Amino acid sequence: MSNSLKIRGLVVFVCLTLALFSLAPTVMYDSLPGWWQDAVDPIHRGLDLQGGMHLVLGVDVDKAVESRVDSLIDQTDALLREKDLVFKRIERRQGNRLVVVVYDAAAGEQVDALMAENFPSLESETLPATGGYIEKHYRLSDKEAANIADYAVRQALETMRNRVDEFGVSEPTLQRQSDNRILIQLPGVKDPERAISLIGKTARLEFKMVAESVDVAEAKKGNLPAGTQLLYERNTNKSTGAITETPVVVYTKTALTGDLLADANVRIDTRYNEPYVSIDFNRVGAKRFDQITAASVGKRMAIVLDDTVYSAPVIRERISGGSAQISGSFTSQEATDLAIVLRAGSLPAPVQILENRTVGPSLGHDSISKGIKSVIVGSLLVVVAMIIYYSLSGVVAVIALLLNVLFIGAMLSLFGATLTLPGIAGIVLTVGMAVDANVLIFERIREELRLGKAPKVALDLGYGKAFVTIMDSNLTTLLAALVLFQFGTGPVKGFAVTLSIGIVASLFTAIFVSRVIFDFFLNRRQVRRLSI
Amino acid sequence: MQLIKPDINVDFVGKRTLALAFSLLLIAVGLVSLIAHGGPDYGIDFAGGTLVQVRFTEPTNATAIKGALAGMEIGSLVVQQFGDDANEFMIRMEKTSTELKGLAIEVQNHLSAAYGADKVDVRRTEMVGPQVGSDLRNKGLMAIFYAMIGLLIYISWRFEVRFAVGAIIALVHDVAITIGMFSLFGKEIDLPIIAAFLAIIGYSLNDTIIVYDRIRENVGRYNKESFAFIVNRSINDTLSRTLLTSGTTMLVVLALFVLGGGVIHNFAFAMLVGVLIGTYSSIFVASPILIFWEQRQAKKS
Questions:
Q1: Does the distance separating the beta carbons of A428 and B256 come in below 8 Å?
Q2: Residue A278: helix, strand or coil by DSSP?
Q3: Chain A contact for B49, CB < 8 A?
């Protein structure tokens, strides 16, 4: 045996060993020793094959900017009062504008100076208003607004990650995407409905004082005094399950927010055997809670979660311990989930579901078995066709084809690529096209044989001449596959991965491996006829 | 075994005017169908919408399902049987909901109420918002566009510009006919179908390049013959390979079409059409274009 053949044989042997080594965990994970399991992961299955949930959430960053302006309004209000500046009112307009209405130009200048000193990032503008008032407009700069938006998305991602961790899903994916979007993939999630509400709930917890003096009936008609808002208290009737909504008018100004929470847990109320969520404030929160309750004994305080009032108990006495409870006829799962979202923190802005694809595990299972079945049947058909058409040489092509499929699987597992349903289609397609290289070579060999060349010479010429053609045709297809991978999304990408891997593997098996097999059998043998 | 005799010499090139007419006819049929349908029939990936795939324990029918959902305000609604069994259905709605409690859950609740909770198994739900839908559509189109540009450059480099133009025209021809056939058979275009289009591009190109490669080789060998003769000779030289490879690829695509299951079905349909058209185009479109090009050059000079 020539040295070149020995080396080439060794290369094929090493590749084959490596392929079997990296495929073993996919086929028989449990019966392998620990070091082997650690060395190579089984092939990752996409959500369409193993079941699970694919979500794209859009963070409503405009809301985050608005709430920043709202908090600036609170600060400005406090500041102006502290400096004894007289003003008519402060309000938010057009999302990101803070407007201070003053009585004369002198006051306007004072406000300007104060704002410039305390909030240098705001851009100011003066407009006359009806009734001789002067409006001072302050606008967040575009850069500042972009910063707030960016921070909101980052924080939302962080909060969602915490929530998903508490929810307990193995190998979740959370990624930030362009346009303030967040991609979440939860493989094998059992209760998609619950997962969505857990991840997507804003969970903005606020404590607001009830405006007892306002007539609720008038408020419902839209006659709300400035600085108050109408919310609804939700109650579930235990025996009928009917949900009733009671209107409550509260002061818009938030007394205390959920940001100051240290912990939240589910407890059972022993009197009614009902679950509630017990919350503990941190040091700052406890102090504020103490002050508020001390100042408001006898008044009602509404506990508001995402603009729904959960309860509005009367403050009977000053509460100094820094803990409170949220009750509101919960089921025990609702209470558990509420505790989780409160612990993980609120989202800086509400989110919308832009894309949701959920595949149940039974469908994923069906898809795999159908996919594998079509790969096997398709391959068998090709095997039969090749052997009928090319006899023994066809067998060589079939061996190359089998190795090809083996190598594709091995590369998928080595690169940690994800196998999806379109990915399986890509493999099937590769099987069909992989024999093309061998067909090209064999047709060339036949041509050379017809010209009366000796088998070995014909083999040499056939491989040599077909090589350029094969490279050109495969490289163009690879080029298309790589573009797909770069610009494609989801299923397109999955298809591109297996197609690219398949092309590389088939170039190797069809040109290199099949030649080694031929040379091995023809080595030092005077062959007069080639079975082709 | 040999299906094609080595000395075969079919006059493919002589039938190029006929082929041109046939291609134009196919494209026209597709175009008419596209106009009649008001554009391509986009699936929810591109059009946006909500899709719920449900399996019932007992056979039922589309009318009954629509009846069960009658209480919902969901606008237009399509209910289709999925696969061969009369107990699995796809429900597609135009409407989407960005709320956390999505439409799919509402559908599930309505079906459970009508059929009984343990008789309904929601196997798949998909909701694509209109914004994401148009994003995906643009990305898909961009992928095809960039792929074509890349191929144009690569083939111009490896062969000549006229070869690249011929190959690209053949590709546009293949994809146009496949899109037309999709419209004609009332099939929806969604994300996996874009992957299929790109596979068709890759496949058809493969075929075309192999004929071109032979033309490049034969130009040196038969330097006394006309260009049309060389092109025809090259097509005949590679005919055996073209048919065999198309044959094996068709075998696996057929396996996918028959056995791959509902999700893969449309993908395989696209491939089936694409492989047929791709094979046809590398013989009757991509190569004759070179001759048309040659004739125009000759007229100019």
A1: yes
A2: strand
A3: no
Q: How far apart are CA A345 and CA A203, in angstroms?
A: 7
The predicted structure's pLDDT at residue B233: 92
Residue B262 pLDDT > 80: no
pLDDT lower than 70: segments of chain A = 1, 238-239, 241, 491, 524, 526
What are the φ/ψ torsions at residue A439 (nearest 5 degrees)?
Answer: -60, -45
B3 CB-near residues (< 8 Å, 6+ apart)? A389, B240, B243, B244
**In this predicted model, which residue has the larger pLDDT, B71 or A21?**
A21
Q: Which residue in the block uniquely carries the two structure tokens 């990408």?
A: A493
**Are B56 and B120 contacting, i.e. CB atoms less than 8 angstroms apart?**
yes
CB B104 within 8 A of CB B50: yes
Contacts of A471 (CB under 8 A, 6+ apart): A507
Beginning with the edge strand found earlier in the chain, give each strand of the sheet holding A323-326 in spatial order. Answer: A261-269, A274-281, A323-326
| Cβ atoms within 10 Å of B117's Cβ, excluding its own | 10
Q: What is the pLDDT of residue B110?
A: 87
Which pLDDT score, from 0 to 100, does residue A238 have? 66
Of B1, B210, B241, the CB nearest to A388: B1
Residue type, B194: I
3-state helix, strand, coil in chain A (%, to 5): 55, 20, 25
pTM comes to 0.78
C-beta of residue A247 within 8 angstroms of C-beta of residue A232 = yes
Per-residue model confidence (pLDDT) at position A66: 86
Mean pLDDT value of segment B195-204: 81
Q: What phi and psi, each to the nearest 5 degrees, are found at residue A102?
A: -120, 170
């593997």: which residue's tokens? A505
Contact B235/A at CB under 8 A: no
Per DSSP, which regions of A29-187 are E strands?
A: 44-45, 52-59, 89-93, 97-102, 122-128, 134-140, 173-177, 181-187
How many domains is chain A built from? 3
Which residue matches tokens 């064999």? A442
Residue with tokens 């392998």: A32
Check CB contact under 8 Å for B102 and A359.
no
The number of beta carbons lying within 10 Å of the beta carbon of residue A476 is 23
Q: How far apart are CA A118 and CA A88, in angstroms?
A: 20
**Residue A277 · residue A342 · CB < 8 Å:** yes
Is there a domain that residue A325 lies in? yes
Please enumerate in sequence order all residues whose Cβ is within 8 A of that of A311, keeping only pairs 6 or more positions apart, or say none: A233, A302, A303, A326, A327, A328
C-alpha–C-alpha distance, residues A432 and A327, integer Å: 64
Using a CB–CB cutoff of 8 Å, tell me whether B249 touches chain A. Answer: yes
Q: What is the pLDDT of residue B25?
A: 95
Tokens at residue A180, please? 């303030």
ipTM for the assembly? 0.84
What CA–CA distances, in Å, run from B96 to A124, A196, B101?
41, 16, 11
pLDDT, tens digit, 9 for 90 and up, residues B152-162: 888 888 888 88
Domains and CATH numbers, chain B: 13-42+132-300 (1.20.1640.10), 49-128 (3.30.70.3400)
The predicted model gives B13-22 an average pLDDT of 90
Domain co-membership, A332 together with A208: yes
Query: Each residue of B115-148: pLDDT tens digit?
Result: 888 888 888 888 888 888 888 888 878 877 888 8
What three-state secondary structure class fits B101? coil
Same domain, yes or no, for A483 and A354?
A: no
Q: In this prediction, what percent of chain B has a pLDDT beyond 70?
A: 99
Amino acid making up residue B77: L
Q: Is A146 part of any domain?
A: no
Residues of A whose CB is below 8 A from B101: 193, 196-197
Domain that holds residue A28: 3-51+360-522
Distance from CA of B60 to the nearest CA of A (A): 19
Considering only CB atoms, which chain A residues are within 8 Å of B107? none
Contact B185, B29 (CB under 8 A): no
- In chain B, what residues touch A390 (CB-CB under 8 Å)? 1
